[in-house]
Protein: Radical SAM protein
Organism: Paenibacillus lutimineralis
Amino acid sequence: MSDWERLGTVFETKNNKYFYDTGTGKVFLCDVVESAILESLLTSSDPAAIAQLDFTDAEIESALNTVLALVEQEKILQAPSFQEFITPKKSELSDLISAGIEQVILELTEKCNLRCKYCIYQDENVGYRNFSKTDMDWETAKKALDYISQNVGENLALTFYGGEPLINFELMKKCIEYSKVIMSDVNISVSFTTNLTLVTDEVVEYLASLDKCSVLCSLDGPKNIQDFYRVTVDGSGSFNRAIKGLRKLVEAFQDKPDHSLGINAVVCPPYSMEKIDELNDFFKSLDWLPPDTNINCSYVDQGDIDWEQLGVPKQEISLEEFNTNEELADPIGAWALTAIDKDDEIKGMAQDISQTKLLRIHNRVITDEPTLGIHMNGCCIPGRRRLYVTTDGNFKVCERMSNSPYIGDVENGIDTEAVYRSYFEEYSNKSIKHCSNCWAVRLCGICFALCYQDDGLDEDKKVGTCNIEKAITKFYLQRYHQLIEDTPEKVEYFNELIIS
Ligand code: SF4
Ligand code: SF4
């Protein structure tokens, strides 16, 4: 085995072809022959493949000389063969974790008054917990908060999750009031996600009385969309109640600079740009929303879709189609780019998704020589910044990882051995063989949440996720360079942003 790999990818904007080199992070403009030669070098180890390309000998010779000069001078196509990820040492983990938990997420209840058709907790979804009648009790919540108070820094995001957390509003209030007492010197901001249907006058009055509070509201769009997907237990639509709840929150939070609202709309298949346009028009029509309301769109996790429930025929997209049709594969991202083109600055729907990915490309490390060492993609250090506490007092990595190995509990705190074994060792052992020869390894945002099950990393699920990640990363390379070509001043905007 050689100690380096030819890693990179060719991509194209409307007018140009480019080559991205994984080892150095550099991007080069190419002509059509250079691009074909680079593609051939990336996909075939047979030098004769270049001679078979559909160009004249003179064209091939000239382009080959350019590529060889780049190999020589710019050190392209020489990414080191990685044998392991850069990870914290086992002995460092305790210190890293005890450096200060920034967010605790308490799962107040597993109950929900809605039965959204795409929800992972539907009874049909094997592999996830289902809706149950379990609430967190005060004793568990108190132990969790006592533990947090021993491991917190200057600031704490106290977050509530469910089910629908407002079902257990009494416990929410008790947790907030207790936290204020035991962490009186900590700057606490309260946040939670809600389906809006249980927002009452009593709820908004209490929330408005807090120093800082932000609420993420789940609202999928106009009545026809919301009422089709987000239904109550008896099957009726939730739009009217949700809008009523949202209006109450807006009124209660007005003139409160430290209170904020965000909206998340889940977009269901079949996907199209028109669908995102419809959502955008709807949210724009809510002229009573504060102008700074962050409205975000997200996809349903394809792996978890029950197509029958969603009322659409199963959409089979081949990898080939996924790789080549960005409006089919990533309509939210494609839509966001048109929004960037239209607006003076990036704002509104889909901004989070597109900004994070464009920023990753904008802020990539570019080096003269190929960089040694790779990090574990987009993975966090479990337990370091955030901690998810289940209704029964077990610790998980985050709210996106309801089915994943525990990393401790309220009785014993974070188990660093479990963190190391289940997350660093297992992820490294099962992923390095894929990542070490993946062109996207320096731009990849895959984390545990996308590939773990209760018993650890699910390799098949991860490979499927990797295919999507690579296709989408390539779309974003194209989008970023299209932006540079069309409106370079908009790329400057990224210099002021940081990846969260
Ligand atoms: S989403 Fe991924 S990176 Fe973020 S906390 Fe969860 S597991 Fe970690
Ligand atoms: S896409 Fe998959 S194989 Fe490629 S770097 Fe990311 S996690 Fe590794």
